[in-house]
Amino acid sequence: MVLGLAFLVLGISAVVLQAWLWGPQFWDAAANKTRAPRAWLRVHRYIGYFFFGIYVFMMWQMVPRLWQYQVELPARTVFHAVTAITLGVLLLTKLSILRFFRHFEEAMPMLGMGILLCTVVLSALSIPFTLRAHALDRSPVNVQRVQRLVTELAIPGSDPGHLVSPSGLDRGRRVLTSECTVCHDLRTILSKPRAASGWYDVVQRMAEKPTVIGDPIQLADIPYVTAYLVAITPNIQASAKRRSDGDERQVQASKAVENLGGGAGANALDVKECTLLVEKKCTQCHELDELDKHGGDDEPGWTKIVRKMVVEEEAKLLETEARNIISFLTSSRPKGLGPTKGGKAP
Predict the structure, then answer these.
(1) What is the 3-state secondary structure (H, E, C) of the chain?
(2) What does the pLDDT read at residue 186?
(3) Percentage of residues in the chain with pLDDT exceeding 90?
(4) What angle is formed at CA 59 by the lines to CA 206 and CA 167, rounded to 5 degrees?
(5) How many whole angstroms separate alpha carbon 174 and alpha carbon 7?
């Protein structure tokens, strides 16, 4: 992430300097070259060397990963790779002009803009997902939520208290951003929120897969990366919710909840039991204040939300649990109840 941000800043700085150094005030049309101060030309050159060094380091890290994919490369990864290769061609062309073909110096502004465009595209494809991977809520509420969930998972040989400690969460982040990304880009990993058991299953499957380059996830690291993914799931869930805002398509429910709807509230409810059920199941992926932000809804509205929890977020719900949650939310948060701030769960 740090190198990616430095890459972007250096690219912008180089183009700004280029626009000045090769601008009308310094350009000698007769000699077909710039007469800019040599000190600033050296600054521009050093920025270019640092930029090129970061590019070489990133390509050294990234290219081997192309051989790790066990299925066809996704379109986003192909576009990312093609842009990176194009950037390399532009950089080599510019360095060649600076070192050997100064009579082509008038092409420098066009090459610089091409390099900047590729840099911005690569940054837009990568940095947001890297930032999301580091967007950890270390508040006591989230830490307690994660500790409760990993305790329920009962991962062999793990200490839930240590998993949610600062050092434990930092270890999980390092595994995610270094070992998991050997075979996947962060968008693939972080595009979909999951329940705690879902993350655990995914991490176990990934640890069992063979790798051609790099080491697989170690068994000792599985609890740590699982806890970290559980910790950042509220951020993933919030992002997924923003992406789906305004999407009116009907979500197809899994078999466990495909018939939920009319008559879900017919049975008598145990308020205390349902409250605990909502707290246990809904906090797998987000905090309860999401209910306050949503406000009230009718039975079809709550049914649609629960279906999305099961289908899109892989919430583990029995049909009876799903019906009770829908009935409880319909009665305790009826349609017409507006969003509240700082409200408490029923």
Answers:
(1) CHHHHHHHHHHHHHHHHHHHHCCCCCEECCCCEECCCHHHHHHHHHHHHHHHHHHHHHHHHHHHHHHCCCCCCCHHHHHHHHHHHHHHHHHHHHHHHHHCCHHHHHHHHHHHHHHHHHHHHHHHHHHHHHHHHCCCCCCHHHHHHHHHHHHHHCCCCCCHHHHCCHHHHHHHHHHHHHCHHHCCCHHHHHCCCCCHHHHHHHHHHHHHCCCCCCCCCCHHHHHHHHHHHHHHHHHHHHHHHHHHCCCCCCCCCCCCCCCCCCCCCCCCCCHHHHHHHHHHHHCCCCCCHHHHHHCCCCHHHHHHHHHHHHHCCCCCCCHHHHHHHHHHHHHHCCCCCCCCCCCCCC
(2) 63
(3) 1
(4) 50
(5) 21
**pLDDT digits over 183-234, tens only?**
666 666 666 777 788 888 888 877 776 555 556 677 888 888 888 888 877 7
Locate the DSSP E strands across 76-207. none
The residue among 306, 297, 301, 343 whose CA lies nearest residue 324 is: 306
3-state helix, strand, coil in the chain (%, to 5): 65, 0, 30
User: Which residues are CB-neighbours of 148 under 8 A, at least 6 positions away?
Assistant: none
Averaged pLDDT for residues 60-78: 69
Is the whole-model pTM more than 0.70? no
Provide CB contacts within 8 A for 221, sequence distance 6+.
Answer: 171, 172, 175, 179
Closest alpha carbon to 10 in 58, 43, 34, 42: 43
Structure tokens at 18: 């280029």
Q: Where are the domains of the chain?
A: 2-133, 140-244, 249-346
The token duo for 276 is: 């605990």
Q: What is the DSSP letter of 210?
A: -
CA-based R_g, the chain, Å: 26
Angle at 310 between CA 307 and CA 314, to 5 degrees: 155
Token pair 């073909």 is found at 101
- Output the six-digit token pair for 132: 């999301």
Q: What are phi and psi of 168, to 5 degrees?
A: -65, -45
The DSSP 8-state label assigned to residue 253 in this structure reads P
